Amino acid sequence: MTMLDDRAKLLLKALVERYIADGQPVGSRTLSRATGIELSPATIRNVMSDLEELGLIASPHTSAGRIPTALGYRLFVDTMLTAERGQLQTPTLAPDQPQKVIANAAHLLSDLSQFVGVVIAPKRSSVFRHIEFLRLSDRRLLVIIVSPEGDVQNRVLFTEADYTPSQLVEASNYLNQHFAGMAIEQVREKLLAEVESLRGEIATLMQAAVQVSTEALTQVQDDVVISGERNLLSVSDFSSDMGNLRRAFDLFEQKAQLVRLLDSSAQAEGVRIYIGGESKIVSMEELSVVSAPYEVDGHIVGTLGVIGPTRMAYDRMIQIVDITSKLVSNALSHK
Fold this sequence. Notes:
Layout: H1 6-22, H2 28-35, H3 41-53, E1 57-58, E2 67-68, H4 70-79, H5 98-113, E3 116-120, E4 130-137, E5 140-146, E6 152-158, H6 165-179, H7 184-194, H8 200-218, E7 224-227, H9 236-239, H10 242-254, H11 256-265, E8 272-275, E9 287-296, E10 299-309, H12 314-333
Antiparallel strand pairs: 1-2, 3-7, 3-10, 4-5, 5-6, 8-9, 9-10
Helix pairs in contact: 1-2, 1-3, 2-3, 5-12, 6-8, 7-8
């Protein structure tokens, strides 16, 4: 497919760029002006005919103009795209609790791209780094659980006994000194073994705390955060075809396919691009996905990306996804 001569490559590049910019089928006269080289209309028509036979462009209707196919976009992205750095003003993403960083990243992706931002959240750890008790009122406590990633979970605990502040400090100190860094299931087993050596009320409090911590740390969470679905309503490729729009929204609602697609991106370094139906997981001809993995302390823990129409400014999307993955990595690795 890369056996195109220089003239055919130049015309295909100009056609793709013009169509991305305008969204209208591109005719011979427009191409002649866009390339700036002297070619007769007949020559351009012949090259266009060859590109169409190769499946790189297509005629949408009786119009004389052509539009790129998914195959044409792929050749353009792989061999003709020049992502100019520095065009994008570097955004910021402040370090925070992981779920907040993830939500902010999804919003950032959709705001910058004006398409849909998607982030797969890191798997939540069942290990705790720190636990603390705060007395709210008689027999009512707030249990604060901090995971190794800095995720903070709060749970209200109703107790049969009323605990003094010194008892609460004693219980939290014991749990933090003996069990911090262990999986919550291990803590539960060890507590059962040590319950005899602990004073009754304190043992009861710690067992209740471990129970709510288990629920907090292992609860089912939203694996994928999506932002900006409504942006597709203003994309002509979708707003003019309710069937396409409905299929796209079904994809966002089900989420499982998205998770599988983005999970597969985590195996590759850097930015990956899926155009049209290339991915067998999400086989929508009208959608493209630009994705990249992100890390915590040097380990890949999740993936993020932009989903939009195949007619997107790929050079800009690559920059947006690349920068956001670095911002998320930095924000989550922040100590």
